Amino acid sequence: xxxxxxxxxxxxxxxxxxxxxxxxxxxxxxxxxxxxxxxxxxxxxxxxxxxxxxxxxxxxxxxxxxxxxxxxxxxxxxxxxxxxxxxxxxxxxxxxxxxxxxxxxxxxxxxxxxxxxxxxxxxxxxxxxxxxxxxxxxxxxxxxxxxxxxxxxxxxxxxxxxxxxxxxxxxxxxxxxxxxxxxxxxxxxxxxxxxxxxxxxxxxxxxxxxxxxxxxxxxxxxxxxxxxxxxxxxxxxxxxxxxxxxxxxxxxxxxxxxxxxxxxxxxxxxxxxxxxxxxxxxxxxxxxxxxxxxxxxxxxxxxxxxxxxxxxxxxxxxxxxxxxxxxxxxxxxxxxxxxxxxxxxxxxxxxxxxxxxxxxxxxxxxxxxxxxxx
Length: 374
Hints:
The chain is about 40% helix and about 20% strand. The chain is built from 14 helices and 13 strands. The protein has helices at about 10-15, 45-50, 115-125, 130-140, 180-190, 205-210, 235-245, 250-260, 260-265, 270-300, 305-315, 320-330, 335-345, 350-360, and strands at about 20-25, 30-35, 55, 60-65, 70, 85-90, 95-105, 105-110, 140-150, 165-170, 195-200, 220-225, 230-235. The two termini are about 35 Å apart.
């Protein structure tokens, strides 16, 4: 089901020309990840893998986190899923995914983007058993994936104490996931917490309806033995009403795009509204990626110059609204984050939105609709 990956050269041909993906080079490792997501970002099984792949400086794959998988209903409706394939329903925790790597003979934890504040905090809370499992996995050519939850790392759901929970394990080369039974054996052998499974006591349709109406949890992950996975998030009805109401104002749509929330909203809409929303997202994302590509080429063309000389070139050649991202990229920072914050700023009100419309070329016509209960 998954493509074989041994080196970075196995991946690069699949993302050439797809400017939604980025190869970020650090001193001791490299990362392939995606930025803004459009409707056609993930064109192949290999692009689905480009979600935090880690490579040694010689090009060897050293960690393979989760592939990109989607909300149930986002790309495949529940009735179209083959539920006869063995699967398990897992609780979905609300923290940060981290995984181990060995860099310069030292065990580190990483998030999708590499060593970050969250991964460093997770490693600090990792007990001896978590570290033993991590080292075993690295030696075995596998990536074990944990969820780090803590009071200080709160996203939405509050947790009382720091914890690392085993979520999954993947073979680095083949991408195959360990089954839940195999995870149970690993968790027992190394005495580490394992993500809980949930017993479905009703039909799939009823379970989906019940799950989406629950409160106090983020949701579930449905993991099939063949590697297929779906997210199932809760608060369905409340979010559906909020989503439908939000469609009346373009600034809300832009905020969803900037926050990466479109894939959460799409399953809650009728098919025609979902397509309109995704089309809007594609226009904005294509504009973002086009600007990022142009800025990357501009910065590369002026590399090695003094900052004052670069500033003069920026002032003479770039739209003022893109200059902040150019300087960030010149300083080795993430230009996409600058543009994302600009979009969030523009989503505050309609006048701000109008001030950047020509940069991206998006337009939105508020649909006529009635919000129904249920």
